[in-house]
Amino acid sequence: MTFIPSEAFKSISYPDRTVKRADRAIRCAPFQLHFFQTIRDNSVFLSAIASNSGVESGYTRSPVAELAAENSLLWLIQVGVLRREVDGQGITDSFRLTPLGRQLVEKWEVEGQGVPTASLCDRIANTFSRGLGLFI
Questions:
Q1: 44 forms bridges with which residues in the sheet?
Q2: Is residue 90 packed enough to be buried (19+ CB in 10 Å), middle (13-18) or exposed (0-12)?
Q3: Domain limits at 48?
Q4: What is the CATH number of the domain that holds 66?
Q5: Alpha carbons 134 and 66: distance in angstroms, whole number
Q6: What are the tens digits of pLDDT across the range 36-61?
Q7: How many helices (H) and strands (E) does the chain have?
Q8: pTM of the model
Q9: What does the alpha-carbon distance between residue 50 and residue 104 come to, in Å, rounded to a whole number?
């Protein structure tokens, strides 16, 4: 068995359209950079994200209802940023970052500004994509 140092591995390369869609989806979501940094290494349960606990943990900007939080998380799964955690009994209500999500979080960490604010055009495009199930 040959050992390959980690520097030899390259990140997965995604099409620009995929990265832009994922970037826009994250910017339009109610989550802070701290949330994405946390789920990069540890799973986070929905109950820790919703309501005041999400604000207290630094995961959300303001309290988010559990249903709204789950809908946002499910959209981020559809665009390829998150995945549901699976245990021995099946799918759980906790979430982790995908390699695409990790790349975006690393980009924002380097920039040092957190998740950028979504523009009105971003919000309209994201709503359109979500509502019609299109990936534009």
A1: 95
A2: exposed
A3: 15-116
A4: 1.10.10.10
A5: 24
A6: 999 998 888 889 999 999 999 999 98
A7: 7, 3
A8: 0.83
A9: 23
